[in-house]
Amino acid sequence: PGGGPSGRGPLVRGLRAKQPDLRRVAGAWHDRFERDHPAAIAELVSMMLTVADTPAHAEVAREDVQDREPADVVQQLVAALALEASEKGADFTQHWLVSRERGAQRVRENYPLLWREVTATASHRMLLDGLLAMLRDWTSAMSECQFRSVRHVATVAALNVVEGLGVAGQNLQELCETADVQIRDAEACEALDRLPTLRAERDEAARAARSLAAARDSMGVALLSRRAKDVDPEIRRCCFDSMRRWAGAHRAAFLDQQWTRYLHFGAGDRDPKVRLAVFAVLEHLLHNDASVPAQAVATLIDHSKPKVLARCHDVDPAVGAAAVRCAFAIADREMLGETEYDPVIDLVWDADAKRRSEAVAFISRFVLIEDVLDYLPSGGTLMPTGAVGGTVARRRLKMILQFLVEYTEEHYRLVDRFASAIWRRASCIEDWEIIADLLLQGGEHEVTGALHIALVHLAEAVVQLAVDDAATTGGADVPAHAEAVLDRAARALAPRVPALLSSCQAEPAAMRRAASLCRHVLGHCAARQGRGACGGFISGQQGEAAAEALKTAFVRQPDTETLEHCADAMAHLLDLTDTARGIILGLANALHAELMDLVPCIAAEAAAAEVPPADALLAAAARLRILAKACDVSLCRVRGFSGALLGLLDDRADAMAQGADPAVGPQLAVTLLELLVLVMMRHTAALIQPDPLPHCVVHDPIDRQELKLVPTAAKDFCKVVAALLQADPVPQVRTAAFASAVAVLTAWANAVSFTEASRAGEAADGEEPPFLRLDDELAEALCGHLGELLTDANAVPPDSGRFEGVSALGDAKQASAFSQLFAGLQQSLIGAGGRDASCCALSDSERVRLAALVCAMLGACRHPEIADSTLPAVVLAQALSPRNDLQEVAWILLRRLRKEAHLQAESADAFFKVLLHAVYLVHKDAGVEAARDLSSRLLFHVGVGKLAPVMQVSLVAALQAGVMRSLTATDAAPGLLEALVPWVTKRCVDEGLLRELAAWVEGEAKASAPQGREEEQAEHAGLPSLIAALKATIERGEKAAASRGAVGAAPPAIMASAAPQAPAKRAAGGAPTPRGHDLEEEEDDSPLQDAAPQADGDAADADTVVASASLPPTAPSAKTPASGKRRRTSGTTPHSQRNPVGPAKALGPRP
């Protein structure tokens, strides 16, 4: 029941035990060995075969080993196992030492310990009188077996026999030392009669210790000479892991060349786990210990130092970190020259955290004048307070800064990696009063030049690390330590924000980091305002001065990233001080007036102007776009501000439609689109959620008369966006228009949903909130552009242009898909120069990235008309994409829909409706096989085993809708129902529902077919395949249920006698299943060809399964009637009130 290998022998039972007394098990085996040597050895050999998971009949009996050479028995065993494998098949790569099955972990722990106890607890007389020779001969012979599992198990046994010999020899050495003490005591007491006995015992123990040491060395060297070069990397790793334990007890002995020579070629092993084990041994041998002969260590260093320095840059980060630790040990013995430091120092900039951590320890100890890592190695304590004085912290900071300036070579972005390596290890980087004294103008110890730039980068990196740790949910000490660091930073820097910005204004790189530092500090103050920790750090005149400094930086600085940080900092100031609101509104007014003055000039294109109006307008719009994320830059002037921007975009759309040269360039168009979306999001929240106002608009000016124009402005925006999607030749502008439309529709739907949720249970007072519809023209334009994006992205070779950020989409710590998309579009348009499409080509990676981000935005959209359109189905169809990143966006959407499907019946219906629509689209474009493959992949991610009852009913209803469409629609492509076969064969629906569905399908086929054409219509729809799959699945489920019932009814005696003796079957992961039980397979048991989901895209038709521009728009949903108001749902429909198999009206066919 607890898992583990089968068998009733005492040794096997000891392996399976959760808390075994292995010393007692070994002692009992010693007693059996003394009574019957062959039987005891046969028991050990049988245990090895059991752990190797060989067939049960290959056990070894007493007669098999008596008076026979171990090599002959192993040869006979190999012949028997080979015959068995040729007849029935066998897998000799999986066994209990590598299995993941229940009980395997106990076997991995107990099996080596048992062999160690068998050797270590035996008396030296028993060992030297024959036990040692037998153990050596049998384990060595079996370690030469051709079968990998047997060889692995025997090698582990032999290695632990060697370790047991070392323990036994150590015990004898201690016995000799005790005897020496007793002899001295006897001589002192003149007990001369005891001296001969004590000396004889000591001499015997000394001889036995020498004999056991010689046996250990000879057996260990023989094992390493053969198995350290084994073809199995696990066996090679076991050899070096054992050598590490041997050297732990006898370090001086293992510095001999007979042992260390295996480390030299092991350091170049092709398997990283083996190399890691080798460097673990080497690190232990190189440890600075006065008891170890210095000459032996020096010889080892001379031979190993080149390999150590080379492996510091190993492709495997763990191996590289272990090599750095070895280099640390060599340098600690003063045998590493300063010219050899550079390969290790360079690793502090490495992308891997493990290597950086070890490299910074090396730098702190051997490069810096003083060791700055003063935290405890455990790292579990909080930030030390007053651990070092201000003078010491200042000196250490200056040492770090000098190192950074010298080694970064002005690539100050690398400072982030250095900071992450010393984070929570050096207290000097957390002494913010000292940092402020060095950083700010007027400080007593202010640094300048390159040191100042490095310090700004270091301070910002430390605060960023603290912010990240404060947001984690790890150990309790991690957020607490981060909060303490941020409190110190806020206390030191929040009142001095103007001085901080002033000290960095002449250095663009430093200014970017200083603005980010202000953002983090003020954000922490705003977050902790209500808890009294940081509320008084910035208020009154200090808050006003900070707002003025941030405003000045926002106006003067040209860097976009700096502007982003300044805008975020001003947004945090709005929550900290009332005076900031007027300053920020004044800034918005100034930028607003500048933009409105430039709008009339854009068409005139004044050539005599020093700065072209288009460029000046782009600069003003860019700053407004950034500030719009903090407050409403239109100042609630919907008619004038939003109307002016919409007019510019409409002029570009008209010019493109007429083939004229537009006055608005592509970069300005993308900027205006993003700006309008940000403004309309705020206006939508203020309009639809008026009481109480959401936090995102609580600081904005509110004009109710102007807000009444927001629905009209939103409709006009949708029309302009549709025109850009249809006429604009620049792909970035079309993609920006697509994202803008989806973002506005999503924001509107979310605002309505939040308002309805807040009013749940209350009496409806007044009109329902207005709803923004998705008209047919915009829906068709969105479908067409999505098809273009996905076609271009799927045309990129799968091994190039990969977008690594797909898995992080939706993470609160990362920028939203909307922000990432517009940032990418702006970056791709910088330096485009002209205003035509020839200057705006996209690279392969940009095409993939834009497609993935657009799909992610669609996956997060809950607008009911978007959900009922073709767009989500097209995203789900990317499950067939040859690119893993595009497949991932399909799974992101599917996971969201699946999660919502468990909440209420309507969501479950919508979930399977979208899946059905995706299969229909692929079937229409690429045929039956591609659609069937998509069905398999989608159902594979829907769930494992039987679905929840509400999900089962919705799946059956979707199948009914598919049957109705295939039988009644005049434009239905042939074989649609054949593509839905995996929905049945997945066996996720109860057999009772499937039986009812089969009867309904047969009846519907007869009722809907014209007279005399029943068979022709059924063949065209693929009905025979679906019915055959239904019957086969029902029959298989009934057989499985009957089998489980029969097994459950069997009496215990029969169950015990019926336990099979064959080796355990294995699941896909290689773990054996418990003997006596069958795996219930969750496979596709269709009578047609298998269409199991694959990890990579199939070559057949995969590249053609993308959305096309001709995809039809969908009809208005039942949830959005013609009045424009969304009908509210009344909650979840009880499962008992739903008809599982009946007319599929709610899931009718799509256009």
What would you note in describing this structure?
There is one protein chain. By secondary structure, the chain is mostly helical. It is built from 47 helices and no strands. Helix 12 packs parallel to helix 14. The longest helix has 42 residues. It starts with 9 loop residues before the first helix and ends in a 94-residue tail after the last helix. The C terminus is likely disordered.
Q: Which helices and strands appear, and what pairs or packs with what?
A:
Elements: H1 10-16, H2 22-35, H3 37-51, H4 62-65, H5 70-88, H6 104-120, H7 124-142, H8 148-189, H9 195-227, H10 233-249, H11 257-266, H12 272-286, H13 294-311, H14 317-332, H15 342-345, H16 353-366, H17 390-408, H18 415-422, H19 432-439, H20 449-470, H21 477-493, H22 497-504, H23 508-527, H24 541-556, H25 560-576, H26 579-604, H27 613-627, H28 638-658, H29 666-688, H30 704-707, H31 710-727, H32 731-758, H33 776-794, H34 817-829, H35 844-860, H36 864-867, H37 871-876, H38 884-901, H39 905-926, H40 928-942, H41 949-968, H42 976-979, H43 981-985, H44 991-1008, H45 1014-1021, H46 1023-1049, H47 1052-1057
Helix pairs in contact: 1-6, 2-3, 2-6, 6-8, 7-8, 7-9, 8-9, 8-10, 10-12, 11-13, 12-14, 13-14, 14-16, 16-18, 17-20, 18-20, 20-21, 20-23, 21-23, 22-23, 22-24, 23-25, 24-25, 24-26, 25-26, 25-27, 26-27, 27-29, 28-29, 28-31, 29-32, 29-34, 31-32, 31-33, 32-34, 32-35, 33-35, 34-35, 35-38, 38-39, ...
